[in-house]
Structures are given as C-alpha cells and as structure tokens.
Amino acid sequence: MKLNDLHWPEVGQIDRALTVAVIPVGSMEQHGPHLPFSVDSFVASHIAEALEQRMPEILLLPPIWTGVSAHHMDYPGSITLRARVFIDLLHDVCASLHHHGFRRLVILNGHGGNRSSLEVLGQELFVEFGLTVNTLAYWDLVPGLVKSLKATPSNGMGHSGELETSLMLHLAPHLVRQKDIPAGALGIEPPGPTDGIKRYVNMKDHSQPGVIGMPSAATAEIGKQLYDGALDALEKAVRALQQDHHRRPSA
Fold this sequence. Notes:
By secondary structure, the chain is α/β, with parallel strands linked by helices. The protein contains 8 helices and 4 strands, in the order αβαβαβαβαααα. It has helices at 8-12, 39-54, 83-99, 115-129, 143-149, 162-171, 203-206, 220-243, and strands at 20-25, 59-60, 104-109, 133-137.
C-alpha cells in the first residue's frame, strides 16, 4: 500500500498495530562528476518500492529526499538539512504514524551522513513514546556481498564509487555520464594511526572530485547483484518484523 494513493477510510481499516510502515530517506548531494544529486534517495526509494510490490501489505510512505549533507556543500547544487531539522522532521513523521496507531516502523536509509541523526531519532522516539523505530542502511543488510563486490578496500559503500555507480548503471543508466567517470581509485585513505577515530571532514578536503572508491570498475551486473541482495535481505527483515508478536508494546 502506498500512503500517497490511499484515502483516510482505507487507512482506518488497516490493522495498524501489525502493519509495517516503511519510510525511505536519502539525500540531495553531489555524487561526483558522473552521477546525479538524487542517488541516495533514488536507490532507497527504488528498493522500498520493489519491497512494496513483493509485500503490498506494508504501508510505504513517500521518500524524504534530502538529509544531512553539510560535508558536500562545497559542491554547487548540494542541499543539506541541519541535523536537528532532519531529526525533527522524521520525529514528526513517526509521531504522526504513532498517533494513528502504527507500531512497526522501518526507516530505510540510503545516505551514510544520516546515520548519527537516525540513531538520535530512535533514542528520542523510544524515550518519548516507547516507540521502537527500526533504522537501517540497505548496504548494512548485506556486508559480505558489499565486500565481495568492491574493487577497493575502503569501508562500507564509499561514495559515488564502484558500488553506487553500479547501482545506477543497473537502475538508471541514462542518468550516468559515462564519459565523466573518473579512472582509478579516489579518496581512499591508507591505514594509519587514526583508524577507529571518527572526525568530521569536508568531502572536498578528502576527495576533490567528490568520489570515494573506483567508479571505473562499476558494471550494471554488479549493481544488479547488490540491488537484488539488498532487496532480498530487506524483505526477510520486514517479514520477521511482521511476525514478531512479542515486541514490547508501546503506548
């Protein structure tokens, strides 16, 4: 079910306590010279829509199309929300769902820069409402697959590298400017004494073209493998959430 397409009497007939509501979130930020600004929102939305096709009993909300992207603001066109605004926006979306009786919420995240804010959001909603919100990044569902498909040793997905470029070659090749794909590995820091330390770094200081990884190694087949694997894992997780009748009840 897509909330966009429903009418309020239809929502009133849903078993709100057992229905899983899914909220895709992403960003609107530069993705190198070869990918569009919408990559994170685009991929998360496509995975969520494919999940709804497999599981039409879920409630799919419209995507939150921008996120916490201050580290990309050196690149013209990037749009960011302050972390507090992002948290408050999603807080009110989740609080509205809670008000209407929904108790099983999933936030499907497509942007690494949203992670810390989503953790704070989950803490605040639990303290305020006793509401457990399940937040996940699609690539975290398949860490072994991510590692096996990468051409570079950097942690996670990278940024506009081989994996995101592959996903876009699979989902929307017309949006990939292949003549502008950078060659070689970019933005990969060698192991050193700062491993394990988190610190804020602007993307341009880390990678002038705004890329972490090796987009020249991307293929549509790699993108399909990652997309299919993440979708299968997401479906498994949501089905488990559907069937969990022993969760702590919330007010």
